[in-house]
Amino acid sequence: MIASILVDVKAKQVDKTFDYLVPHKFENVIEIGQRVKVPFGPRLVMGYIINIKQKSDFDRLRYIKEILDIEPSLTKELLQIGNELSISNTSPLVSIYQVMLPRALKGKYKKLLQVKESSLLPLDLALKFNKNGICDYKEITDYLPEIKKQIKQENIEVIYQVEQYNKERFLKKLTLLHSDVPLRGEKQKLVVEYLKSNPSEYKRNIMHLLGVSHPTIKSLIDKGVIKEDKVEIYREVESMYEANNKRVILNQEQEKVYHTLKNNLNQKETYLLHGVTGSGKTEIYLNIIEDVLKQGKEAIMLVPEISLTPMMVSRFKGRFGDDVALLHSGLSVGEKYDEWRKIRRKEVSVCVGARSAIFAPFENLGVIIIDEEHTESYKQEDNPKYHALDVAKFRSEYYNIPLILGSATPSVDSYYKALNHEYTLLEMKLRANKQTMPATYVEDMRYEFKGGNRSIFSKKLEELILDRLEKKEQIMLLLNRRGHSTFVMCRSCGEVIMCPNCDISLTYHEYDQTLHCHYCGHKEHNPDMCPSCSSPHIRYMGIGTERVEEYIKNTFKDAKVIRMDRDTTTYKNAHEKLLYEFEHEGDILLGTQMIAKGLDFPKVSLVGVLAADMNLNLPDYKAIEKTFQLLTQVSGRAGRHEIVGEVVIQTYNPDHYAILNAKDHDYHTFYETEMKIRKLAGYTPFLNIVQIIITDKEVRNVLNIGQKIKLDLRHQLEDDTLILGPVLPKIARINNIYRAQLIIKYKESKVIDKVLKDIYQKYSDYAIAIDKNPSLL
Ligand SMILES: [Zn+2]
Ligand SMILES: [Zn+2]
Question: In whole angstroms, what is the distance from residue 398 CA to residue 752 CA?
């Protein structure tokens, strides 16, 4: 018996299966989708069984060493998705399979050295080896020349070990066997008495509750009074929020949408649910999932990482209880593994999670929902590049089930598809509880400046903040930039302090009084004088959240402000703790875009956007759309319940359509305007875009290789395809690596996938990244 195996080696040259012999003892257990250990070159690696067959075209095959799964980790459907993705993808197939599995199941490799005769080694090196003659490679990097010599003389051998990251968690459980054995010790009697009323209990609980020690338990076991078993337990994911099972009576609009979906549950169809903020989309999701579960099927609900808020989770836990698994990046490796196994073992029917939850290994799916469908985080930018939407479409087709895309601000690409009947459009124009949309004021900061206001708050916003503090209502302030000062400039010569490794200015952070590069992580002390002209007149320009927090503390002295950005949310469960703190004792929640989505606080009646135009001029063709989405989303946090909400948008571009349409909550006008511009400039949805990034330490090389690739593309692609570049993007150097960019634009192409794969293979000696429909840098 032969197994075709995809090995866990991420090189373009090995991106195919290899045949291995199946040892006789494995013949009855081997299954497609299992993980195995196999020899590959001089070492052992992990691999996935892709096919089982009787014959191979190759002779001299090696044997599979070990089977790592009893149940296959990858289902047949997931294997098929991997294949599908790899057709249009330029990442190694094995990296696609790995992204489908929790980290706990990925191979971990340890490089070890084995010495034959340690007396032949220099003494200090010999001491590094244990009594079995083994030493971790990492320990001896100072001795590399000597090691090399010893390897040549065959006294040292390099060996590799495959390990698994994480293991199941076990607890010891005690069970009463005989209660009538006479006992002398008081403590022993105590344990038996306890176990009479609770026949089985965790050992650690008994020790803790009764204050007994290990020897007491052991002597009871030795006497045969009780027995000890190892039981596997799941790591519980704790939440500060209680499960919330409020049921809402659907209004007319919701009812209509719900019925359309409910009546078409067993049909493949993509729906775009466009509902204003607060229109009650979540309630519809919950009801539909409930209907799907009644049919004995399963459901996946994707939400953006940052809006996987405790409130959302508590509603799912409230409705479906223990039938829900959660998958997001806030979980530890072990917790994620446990949640994943609940799905694989069919112990739950609902999975709520961020991007990679789209690979939840259900085998009887009934619906897939992608909330906030416009969110960029559904696309994985690192290898393997994939979009959760593409995977969702495949699975919807595979199971013949609905795919529901929901958003208050659908991407214009999706809305275009809905208008062209590729998706079915469902709309909800009113807030669920008939609450009006918040009144929005656009404040022109140029005008404020002329009037002598040098503050970071317009008069209007300051006034309204004071009003809310007075009324004990809550405020949310958005500034999409972290740090204290966003650049540091010399007032004498105008020099801006740049990162030594990147073409980007450094950001000052007050908490460690250091300049940070947000691209490569470089840090340096803030200068006493200008590095260029030695002038002492250094000025800190541009505001970040840290500086606003400081400003609020000085201006509104009694207000309790909670700051949420990448710097304050690095510890485990930070989001949840900060949100809980804000809800229960905060006045102002200040944050970057991580506060814009999914939050629902009844007492928030004012939202302020401090610099609405901050991202408008980024070199990204989606910059305007993203600005509109962000403004609409964050505005939607105000006045969702009884209290009427107000929004203040501060800007230097008060007439920009992204800002005006967000102010009026007018998605349709925004869409029309944006589409005209996209059409003129030749962007999606009118033309498809592919970006090729070439990276190298030498700026010459990136441009030369770019030229060669361009020539190849020109020969192979259709004549009406546009190929732009190669050019150096605005930030051409990151971490001392240069980047050049080529852009391909095309309406339709029969050959594009194949051409891109060829390019990827042909230039495999260079670092090139190929990205479809990217955001341009
Ligand atoms: Zn200077
Ligand atoms: Zn840098």
Answer: 25
